[in-house]
Amino acid sequence: MLYKIFIDPFVQMGMAPDLLVQTLWDGLVAGVLYALIALGFVLIFKASGVFNFAQGIMVVFAALTLVGLHEKGVPAYVALAMTVAVMFALAVGVERLMLRPLVNQPDIILFMATFGLTYFLIGLGELVFGGNPKVMIASELGLPKGTIDINMLGGFVSLQKIDIAATVIASAMVASLAVFFQKTRVGRALRAVADSHKAALSVGISLEQIWVIVWFAAGVVALATGIMWGARSEVSFALQIIALKALPVLILGGFTSIPGAIVGGLIIGIGEKLGEFYWGPLLGSGIESWLAYFIALLFLLYRPQGLFGEKIIERI
Predict the structure, then answer these.
(1) Which of 193, 214, 216 is nearest to 205 (CA)?
(2) Percent of the chain with pLDDT over 90
(3) What is the pLDDT of residue 197?
(4) What angle do CA 34, 6, 18 make, to 5 degrees?
(5) Exposure string over 102-114, b if 16+ CB within 10 A, otherwise e
(6) Three-state DSSP string of 55-119
(7) Domain ranges, ordered by start, for the chain
């Protein structure tokens, strides 16, 4: 039994290196997309200190808006621009109607407000676009189809073109947002708001503008995530379940760290695929659905602040 758990999977990796590369590639794609989802959570948490439970449904709502507009006869790229405008309107509405009235309230109240936002977006999405699964307009947006087969290591590795595009686009978005929030004036303002709302206000930083910016950025990230995940499967309300994988990613990387979201996403994505392929037959199918949360539990026990999170020291 110990041999099958600790030795045999690694023997299989050595005997079939092409399958190992294929598994690593699938994990890399999933990990980058998990990191993109987690990034939306990180942006809002850094600006307000509140975990946005609605980020998952924002992914679904953005994708439904895009597909729904196209179904009504709007050209694909015009629908994309209109969806971006809808996410901006959502950011303004959240700031005006939810965040502004609840400023300086306990974090748990803002957290519960995001629950309300979740069910509002679910109801609005079903009312306007219906509850049936939809097909993402991937080809209309210029996303590639088909596969690329590469001969290597005595076998071949099959790469889906949509996965390559998703990895490149998601990586570019993550890198761009990281640079934007690290090097620009808005990014410095965001870090100031994250450190202290009162201190930020004292130097003339507008909380309202910062909140709109980060919620809009999170909305754009949600739209990109919805397009990529929708192109790989379909657009339905079940996509919000995928967004829950951002929880273990955030626990691993730290709730306030953009690099942590990237590293955590890769660890979870690759770890899931390796666990499912090599240890799944031994431990039972479906290991991919719970392994991420098991890894997160280990981190909570031994490093609760995550790999890149800051330790919180309180005087008693």
Answers:
(1) 193
(2) 10
(3) 66
(4) 60
(5) eeeeeeeebeebb
(6) HHHHHHHHHHHHHHHHHCCCCHHHHHHHHHHHHHHHHHHHHHHHHCCCCCCCHHHHHHHHHHHHH
(7) 2-302
Distance between CA atoms of 35 and 39, rounded to whole angstroms? 6
Q: Bridge partners of 160?
A: 147
Q: Collect all residues with Cβ–Cβ distance below 8 Å to 275 and sequence separation of at least 6.
A: 287, 288, 291
Question: Position 252: which residue type?
Answer: L
Strand partners, 148: 159
- Extract the tokens encoding 120: 């509002």
Do residues 52 and 44 lie in contact, with contact meaning Cβ atoms separated by under 8 Å? yes
Fold of 2-302: ABC transporter involved in vitamin B12 uptake, BtuC (1.10.3470)
Q: Whole-model pTM above 0.70? A: yes
| Residue from 230, 220, 269, 223 nearest 249 by CA | 269
d(CA 224, CA 46): 20
151's torsion region: left (phi>0), alpha (psi -120 to 50) or beta?
Answer: beta
Could you tell me the two tokens for 196?
Answer: 């202290």
What does the pLDDT average to over 291-310? 80
Q: Angle at CA 243, nearest 5°, toward 28 and 216?
A: 100
Question: CA-CA-CA-CA torsion for 27, 141, 217, 133, nearest 10 degrees?
Answer: -70
Dist. CA 163–CA 233, nearest whole Å = 12
The per-residue pLDDT for range 224-260, each reduced to its tens digit, is: 988 888 887 778 887 777 777 788 888 888 777 778 8
Per DSSP, the chain holds a count of helices (H) and strands (E) of: 15, 2
- DSSP E strands: which ranges in the chain? 147-152, 155-160
> Rounded to whole angstroms, how far apart are CA atoms 187 and 179?
9
Residue 142 and residue 116: Cα distance in Å, rounded?
A: 36
Do 280 and 288 meet the contact criterion of CB atoms below 8 Å apart? yes
